[in-house]
Input
Amino acid sequence: MYHRFPMVQVDVFTSVRLEGNALAVITESRGLHIDEMYALARETNLSETAFLIRSDVATERRAGIRVRIFTTREELPFAGHPTLGAAWVLREEVAASGAPRPREIHLSLNVGPITVRFEDEGPDGGTFGEMTQVEPTFGPTQDRVEVARALGLPADALDPSLPIQTVSTGLPFTIVPLRSLSVAQALVFDRAGAQAHLDSHDGKFFYFVTRETVDPAARLHARMMFYGGEDPATGSAAGCTAAWAVAHGLAKPDERFLIEQGLEMKRPSRLHVRAGKDGDKVTDVRVGGSVVQVLKGEYDLD
Output
């Protein structure tokens, strides 16, 4: 006997197919054991795979649609491109049923409730979705020389005018500003030293940014390496960076700006971010982008 699990694959943070960050969305995951979720995440071999666990209409209206997010190695409490991609897939399912596309999709993630709001015409053309992430928390700023030493980089590879800091909107990233685009493009660092530093400073991953960009419209150029590879677009880190940018005067409160990522791996991604401010507190972190579908099918499992 086979159990069939429908899936949709989308590219997130892009309006161009085969760019951005690819995501597999298993659109009905009831009956899957957690070990099978891990196995399917390894089968897709993408940065993340999102599993939708559907419930009755009343529960979903009250609590949001349940989503679990897996990398090939672990379950994450939150990740940006699976959140946006899953919401886009759910919105298209509503349209396929003949009903109007909703303006908002409410999700229930391990980190808590997340709302994704949609516009019919976004900054990159076409449908645009923007998630509101959980309120940011900030760790202390970190010593530039110490971080450079841990990464195995010369201290002058890091931008001395901007702080290094761990920020979380559900997943903690240590934001490291680099001196130039050329440094970012040639980036190679000591992974063991980097992990030891993250472990001692409550970070999950490093997110490297520089104010020099390829696209003049972008405010920051970013890279994120993890598990020995690279991520084409990191929506959770982009939210942390939006909060960090507002906190340190790199962006004005509620100013939407563009982060470019994934260019070095030929998966260009466009992440539109903003954050508000209430007194001295950074709040209302939002990350948005476009989504396009590239594949639809089902998995057959014993």
